[in-house]
Every structure is written in C-alpha cells, then in structure tokens.
Amino acid sequence: MSSQEELVSEFNASVEEDLNKRKRSIEDGEALDKEISRRMDAEEIGVTLGTDHHVGVLMLGLATVITLFALYMIFGVSPDRITG
Fold this sequence. Notes:
The chain is mostly helical. The protein folds into two domains: 1-47; 48-84. It contains two helices and no strands. The protein has helices at residues 3-41, 51-76. The protein is elongated.
C-alpha cells in the first residue's frame, strides 16, 4: 500500500470510530430523556411543593427594594443637600 492509501484508510477508520461514538452518545441521551420523562410522568420530579412560589415572591421583593434604593441613590441624593 502506498502512504496515501494508508492515510485514507486511517481517516476512514477514525471517521467510523467517531460516528460510533456519536451514535452511542445519542442513544445514551435518548435513554436519559426517556428516564426523565418517565419520572416526570410519575410525578417524582418537576412537581412544585409550594415553597418555590414563596421564594419567588421574596426574590421579587428583594429585587424591587434594591432597585428602588439604587434609583434613589442615583437620582435622589444630591451633593448640595449633603452637609459635612
């Protein structure tokens, strides 16, 4: 065999190996997706327990307070009114 034919055969082998790895990766991903879907259908995961709503309200309130404070500091405090 010439060196060019060897390079072509090595390239084809590496392409075949890469395709097999990708196929296995896709199959593993599909199996994981099926397991997640099964657990969601059985309500093992993805079900709210009510605490996430409370945490969301607390986060919204904190973000509002920080935003209002930042706006007050930016637009409400004038150096002329500060006495030192």
